[in-house]
Amino acid sequence: MKLHTSPKRSRGFTLIELMVAMAITTVIVTVLVSITGVALDTWQRGRAEIRASRQAKSMLDTMAKDFESLVSRRGTKFEWLYSKVESELPGPSANMSSNAAELIFFTAATDRYLGEIGSEKDLGGDVSCVSYQLAYQDPVQGTEEENSSTFVLYRLLVNPDETFEKLLGKEDLKAAFQTFEAEVKKVENFVCENVYQFTLTYLVEVTQTTGTTTTTVPVRVTLGETGAGKELMLRGNGIETDASAGSIKPTVTEEELKAGRLTGVEIGITVLSDAAVIRLAQEGLSDKVREKILAQESFQYSRVVELPGM
């Protein structure tokens, strides 16, 4: 007797099983995409911060070396340092910066004569004039371009020969420097880019006398702060600033501040990421949006430099 066996039925996935599998796959893919997005944002911010720190180091190192070799002499009316901050960079775009400082002073820079000290190019001078300016323009073209402009810091070093002939011994250093004004923002004087602002806080030792007691008081003068003024000049006969005496803490008189000794300077800078520069260049941004961009995509650095005694 023959037994007839029925063939095995091939069994596939049911609709419910497919839907469960698709749901699990969707959850896994969503989690992976979320993790990848967070990791990518972290990587991009880390990359932007590393680039910003390099820019900051370049600027702070260069400016600190110049300040450390600051040259000044007492007993004259000559101006040895001029500094001023603006709340707006000049140019057709009128890009706002809370502190766009302009700085001119005398220094014994080691890169005078293009760094070839002791060579035939060295004519024996050791005091140079240096100027720092912040501009909003293309760092290569030297002009404001719609798609390539950024905040650029420039440094012009005037060799000792021209410094001696045209700048030393002037009571108005800013006016005397007009001869070199157009040269500052040339491509070869580029220091770094994406520097949204740089601030200067001068450290001054003020001597106060009360009765028979004489005390030395450390004072901080930050240019650009409310009431603190926008200009500070160092002359051979003292310190001059347009800051109101009452705005400086601790409180000192104008005469005490003028007779004070400039002991140091704190340089503070804000460096933007490339993305922030692009976003800030958009037209019609509100102050609130600008503040949000700066809070999310800017990095702050500072350095205190001790100045030679005067």
Q: Can you walk through the features of this model?
A:
It is a single chain. The chain is an alpha+beta fold. The protein has one domain (42-306). The protein has six helices and eleven strands. The chain has helices at residues 15-68, 160-166, 173-176, 254-258, 274-280, 287-297, and strands spanning 79-88, 96-107, 128-137, 150-158, 190-193, 195-210, 213-222, 231-235, 238-241, 261-272, 298-306.
Low-confidence stretches: none
Give the domain tally.
1
Principal-axis shape equals: elongated
Q: Portion of residues in helices?
A: 25-40%
Number of helices: 6
Radius of gyration, taken over Cα atoms and rounded to an integer in Å: 30 Å
List how many beta strands DSSP finds: 11
Structural class: alpha+beta
**Major beta sheet, strand line-up:** 5-4-3-2-1-8-9
Largest sheet: 7 strands, antiparallel
Distance between the termini: 124 Å
Q: What is the percentage of strand-forming residues?
A: 25-35%
Helix and strand run: HEEEEHHEEEEEHEHHE
Features:
alpha+beta; 310 residues; single chain
Summarize the structure.
The chain contains six helices and eleven strands. With 310 residues, the protein is an alpha+beta fold.
